[in-house]
Amino acid sequence: MKLEDLRQSQSELLEERDRQNKMMVTLRNQRDMYKNLYSQAIKASGEDIPMQLDRTFLPEVSENKMHTDSEFQLDEKIQEFENQIEKLKKQIEHLKEENDTYRRRKDSK
């Protein structure tokens, strides 16, 4: 019972972390979009772009780490699907062989 509660709690925490990561990606994209729009407006008016816009707010390492977690989950899913595909291919081969054997026996009678 307690183990089940802990697993459910872990699942909820992982879902919440995924939602937060997605929200951070969305916010980063919005920030970049507005930064680009502002830069275009400044360039159109002929002014110099402030130096503050040249720096990034989050280090690349943390951004890469967020992507790494989701990529790891995706890689696991891909591997799982590839394994399923291999199993199904083996089943197809086996069924083809059975079908060939059946046809040979039927033709020989």
What can you tell me about this protein's structure?
Residues 71-105 form a coiled coil. Keywords: Coiled coil. There is one protein chain. With 109 residues, the protein is mainly alpha-helical. 85% of the residues lie in helices and 0% in strands. The chain contains two helices and no strands. It is elongated and about 90 Å long. The protein starts with a helix and ends with a helix.
SSE inventory with pairings:
Elements: H1 2-45, H2 60-108
Features:
coiled coil, single chain, mainly alpha, 2 helices, 85% helix, elongated, 109 residues
Low-pLDDT runs: none
**What value does the average pLDDT take?**
83
What can be said about the biggest beta sheet? Answer: none
Rg computed from alpha carbons, rounded to a whole number of angstroms: 27 Å
Query: Distance N terminus to C terminus?
Result: 62 Å
Task: Spell the H/E element sequence.
Answer: HH
Provide the structure class: mainly alpha
Shape label: elongated
Number of domains: 2
Q: What oligomeric arrangement do these chains adopt?
A: single chain
Q: Percentage of helical residues?
A: over 70%
| Number of helices, counting only DSSP H or I runs of 4 residues or more | 2
Q: In what range is the share of β-strand residues?
A: under 5%
Number of beta strands: 0
